[in-house]
Amino acid sequence: MIETIDALVGLMRQDGAKRIYAKRLAPNDNSKNQVYLGGDFTALNIIPYGDIQNDDTEMAGSVRDRAKAPVDFYWIDDTGHHHAPNTQLILYPKYPEVRMSGFLKGCRQAPADIMRVRDPGRVLFLGITEDGSVLGHAAGPDSPLARELDQRDGLEEVGVFLEISATEGLGSTKERLLEALSAIYQKQWIASQKLGSDGIIRPYTARNGGGYTLEAELGISPNGYAEPDYLGWEIKQFSVADFDSYRPKSPVTLLTPEPTGGYYRDKGVEAFIRRFGYADKGGKDNRLNFGGIYSSVRPYHADTGLQLRLTGYDFDKGKIIDLEGGITLQDRNGEIAALWKYTGILEHWKRKHAQAAYMPSLFRTPPPEYRFGPKVLLCEETDLTLFLRAIANGTIYYDPAIKLENDGTSKMSIKRRSQFRIRHNDLASMYHRTEAKELDL
Fold first, then answer.
1. How high is the mean pLDDT of the chain?
2. Mind listing the pLDDT tens digit for each residue in 222-279?
3. CATH for 5-164, options being 2.40.330, 3.30.160, 3.40.50, 3.30.43
4. DSSP-assigned beta bridge partners for residue 136
5. CA distance 119 to 146
6. 241 to each of 56, 244, 249, how far by Cα in Å?
7. End-to-end CA distance of the chain
């Protein structure tokens, strides 16, 4: 039997857990009724999951009103870890709500005696590994683990979870993040650099080196899959003119998903640009552009004839009512030029983190150097429903930079860049909790 939280943390760390959470289970949190993970989509930024599929079974009540996504889940105890191959997340966008089910099926070593009953006081511990697996351990109401959790103070809340430090004695991830950012702030001017996948820091001369420099200082190696991650926090830097006004020089890019439907997907990018694009306004020959700002509160774009809209969405309640709908670009006749299905946005959303830190930076050259400022914006508990509400009210807008070029021969090149952006001052609308922290010099 595992008798202390430290012992459990040690076992989970041996199996690769980088972040560890606890959830106090309510009577309805059992194998029959599923485990409730929150009345929003915050859990989707905490628990890794696989491909999302619409669920059109009779139990759903009607077609397309919920979705499922597999979870690579393992029960862990003092005898080892045991795969629960049927574990999945159930997404109910109409409520909205996320639940977990199937965690006992196909796993003989699963703690059925704890997860089948309705006893109050039970606790579910979850460890999140770097490769996207989830480790689980269930404790009964009278167990040493449940009693110890009740006695612990100061645990950070992340949605319905309590975060437990994976490194005893070093404080919460927020405290450790602020310590690391304070050390970077204290260095003042830092040479532009980039940490390679081989672990070696090298000089970086291009003008987009602010993020790379901050990542290198934090020991983060860039990768193309997810946002920079430090102790489970998404790390963002933004350029400012000075540390007095903190006025950002550019908006924040939230997501960069390719359309999953519409004319763009059905006919291809080239056909899309030729139909909806326009000649380069700078006078470049043999070039067509598709750009501009598209918002649900703006009229149809003068150059492309398109407008940003939401389909399958209840604007009054701020909820998805049809998972086959999504964010669209439509013309005046209702033809969909581009579509980002909600299921596709959910797939992209899992790359984001529930927590994010935004740090300002100054730039000077030569040589290229960055200085990171003392005021950090900490944002916690992001949620897809907040993202869609911000689309609906025009706070988030679509800002593409797509082009088709011909060099005068038969050779053509296509540049794709689809991005959803928000003004820095509106970031708070994307999170349930935000706070500004002054770093120590």
1. 90
2. 654 455 678 888 899 999 999 988 889 899 999 999 999 999 999 999 999 999 999 9
3. 2.40.330
4. 75, 126
5. 13
6. 52, 9, 7
7. 46
* CA 399 to each of CA 251, 252, 293, 422: distance values in angstroms, whole numbers, following the listed order: 10, 11, 5, 10
| CATH superfamily entry for domain 175-441 | MvaI/BcnI restriction endonuclease, recognition domain (3.30.70.3570)
Q: Where are the domains of the chain?
A: 5-164, 175-441
pLDDT tens digits, residue range 347-388? Answer: 888 777 788 999 999 999 999 999 999 999 999 988 889 999
Strands 53-54 and 17-24: unpaired
Q: Cα separations (Å) of 110 from 1, 11, 24, 95, 104?
A: 14, 17, 18, 30, 6
Q: Could you tell me which residues come within 8 angstroms of residue 107 by beta carbon, excluding any fewer than 6 positions away? A: 75, 82, 83, 84, 85
Per residue in 78-121, pLDDT tens?
Answer: 899 999 999 999 999 888 899 999 999 999 999 999 999 999 99
Quote the CA–CA distance of 83 and 107 in Å, as a whole number. Answer: 6
The amino acid at 366 = P
- In whole angstroms, what is the distance from residue 192 CA to residue 239 CA? 14
Helices (H), 244-283: 262-267, 269-276
Residue 280 burial (C-beta neighbours within 10 Å; 0-12, 13-18, 19+): middle
DSSP per-residue letters across 50-110: ---EE--SGGGSSTTS-EEEE--EEEEETTEEEEETT-EEEEETTTTEEEEE-SSTT-TTS
Residue 385: in which H helix or E strand, if any? helix 384-392
DSSP characters for 132-161? S-EEEEEE-TTSHHHHHHHH---PEEETTE
Please state, in angstroms and as integers, the Cα–Cα distance from residue 434 to each residue in 45, 340, 350, 354, 370, following that order.
16, 28, 20, 12, 25
